[in-house]
């Protein structure tokens, strides 16, 4: 007995509707067939279906439009797209829109049955995973995701849909939004959960060592290679490799990464042999990769290979209802970690209002730092506005993107003489100026600032700076 029972076929060719109805009925499915996109949506509104088999080109409504509207109103629906005018771009569009698979016409009826069997197996894994995990999401201090906003729930629904399959995912979002948490959630909800989750920040590794770190090296491959080393792909074999800041990869490493994604094999530095690996790659970026492709700094074929599905993590300013929830979780965490006695009980109404009104350019990471500071400084049972960073309540608040007012710092905020604040503002202005001068090149900017590349990346995240935006201003 198949797991799926009801199937809707939407195709303007009578012969396709006829043969699919006969074959699928013979395999135990309850099949209904319609000839255009509008009728497909009406049928989906009138009756529950497990599967939609949808042609791309149909009268009245295009198949991809039908697909998006169907999945928006029926998120549990499994969709398979069919087309005689197939292309890689069209297939990517279908998968990105939520289709389970894409079938090229002409096809043998057994191909459709095989695709349905694969979809059923995925659904079994999803249900078993849900049963084992009880679909529970622990709080952020435990390393998982906390929130009740519609924006976050929509993202988690996408994660639940993508987790059971091995589709490559590109996670985009501002610094501090929690892109690695989303990558971990994809892993723990997947069949790969018992295996390793390996995370690497591509921008924090010197360009000369990145290939060795990712793919490993043989003994004697270079001067300091006194022993052979397994790379991160080998360590993640069977599991998930998370490539944070993937836009920072040098072009030579991009070529090797593309080969892994296409062939499932790696070649350690200095080796003539190749190794097979079974790794799901999840990448993340706060930079616009399409802009890097246009500049020639990122390979177009790798971009399309990584960007099969894009998950955008919303900034905290788009999920303000989550701020008090996250703040309370951080307070509980820092009460434990800092051994507060008596522990901080929570926030005053005024402090909570300040948290919700602030734009949080540094996102969840900035909120976390603010709560650690507040727990340290609080003398009362509840956190007061005075315990929060000055930027939240000073007379000259930050702008919509967290930028500070220009001019004499002594004259800002009613004569603020905080040396610490002045140093931070000066440091931020120098970093922005260096990025503008180098057109967003972080390596060259670090050299101009006379700090390490790693230190620059940390400060960019700390201040919520967008290097690409600074490059455009330059």
Automatic annotation (TrEMBL):
Keyword ATP-binding set for record: yes
Any single GO BP term: phosphorelay signal transduction system
InterPro entries: AAA+_ATPase (IPR003593), AAA_lid_NorR (IPR058031), CheY-like_superfamily (IPR011006), Homeodomain-like_sf (IPR009057), HTH_Fis (IPR002197), P-loop_NTPase (IPR027417), Sig_transdc_resp-reg_receiver (IPR001789), Sigma_54_int (IPR002078)
Ranges for domain Sigma-54 factor interaction: 145-376
Key words, A-Z: Activator, ATP-binding, DNA-binding, Nucleotide-binding, Phosphoprotein, Transcription, Transcription regulation
Name of this protein: PilR2
Coiled coil ranges: none
Residues recorded as bearing 4-aspartylphosphate in the entry: 55
Organism: Myxococcus xanthus (strain DK1622)
């Amino acid at each position: 007995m198949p797991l799926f029972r009801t199937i809707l076929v939407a195709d303007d060719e009578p012969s396709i509707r006829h043969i699919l109805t006969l074959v699928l009925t013979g395999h135990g499915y309850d099949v209904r067939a319609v000839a255009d996109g509008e009728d497909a949506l009406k049928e989906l509104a009138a009756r529950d279906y497990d599967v939609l088999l949808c042609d791309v080109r149909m009268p009245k409504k295009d198949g991809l439009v039908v697909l998006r509207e169907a999945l928006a109103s029926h998120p549990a629906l499994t969709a398979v797209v069919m087309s005689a005018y197939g292309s890689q771009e069209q297939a990517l569009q279908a998968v990105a829109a939520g289709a389970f698979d894409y079938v090229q016409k002409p096809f043998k009826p057994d191909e459709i049955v095989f695709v349905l069997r694969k979809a059923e197996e995925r659904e079994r894994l999803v249900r078993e995973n849900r049963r084992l995990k009880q679909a529970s999401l622990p709080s952020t201090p435990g390393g998982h995701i906390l929130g009740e906003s519609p924006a976050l729930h929509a993202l988690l629904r996408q994660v639940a849909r993508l987790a059971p399959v091995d589709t490559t995912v590109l996670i985009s979002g501002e610094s501090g939004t929690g892109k690695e948490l989303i990558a971990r959630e994809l892993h723990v909800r997947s069949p790969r959960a018992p295996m390793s989750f390996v995370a690497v920040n591509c921008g924090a590794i010197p360009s000369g060592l990145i290939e060795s770190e990712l793919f490993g090296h043989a003994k004697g491959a270079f001067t300091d290679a006194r022993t052979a080393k397994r790379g991160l792909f080998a360590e993640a074999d069977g599991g998930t490799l998370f490539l944070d800041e993937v836009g920072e990869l040098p072009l030579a490493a991009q070529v090797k990464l593309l080969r892994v994604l296409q062939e499932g094999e790696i070649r350690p530095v200095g080796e003539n042999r190749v190794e097979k690996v079974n790794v799901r790659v999840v990448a993340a970026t706060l930079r616009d990769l399409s802009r890097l492709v246009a500049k020639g700094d990122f390979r177009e074929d790798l971009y399309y290979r990584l960007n099969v599905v894009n998950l955008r993590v919303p900034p905290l300013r788009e999920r303000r209802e989550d701020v008090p929830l996250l703040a309370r979780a951080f307070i509980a965490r820092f009460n434990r970690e800092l051994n507060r006695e008596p522990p901080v009980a929570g926030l005053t109404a005024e402090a909570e209002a300040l948290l919700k009104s602030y734009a949080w350019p540094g996102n969840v990471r900035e909120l976390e730092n603010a709560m650690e500071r507040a727990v340290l400084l609080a003398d009362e049972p509840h956190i007061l506005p005075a315990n929060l960073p000055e930027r939240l309540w000073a007379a000259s608040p930050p702008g919509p993107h967290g930028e500070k007012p220009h001019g004499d710092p002594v004259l800002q905020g009613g004569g603020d003489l905080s040396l610490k604040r002045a140093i931070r503002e000066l440091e931020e202005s120098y970093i922005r100026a260096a990025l503008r001068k180098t057109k967003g090149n972080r390596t060259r900017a670090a050299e101009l600032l006379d700090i390490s590349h790693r230190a620059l990346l940390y400060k960019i995240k700390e201040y919520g700076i967008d290097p690409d935006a600074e490059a455009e201003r330059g």
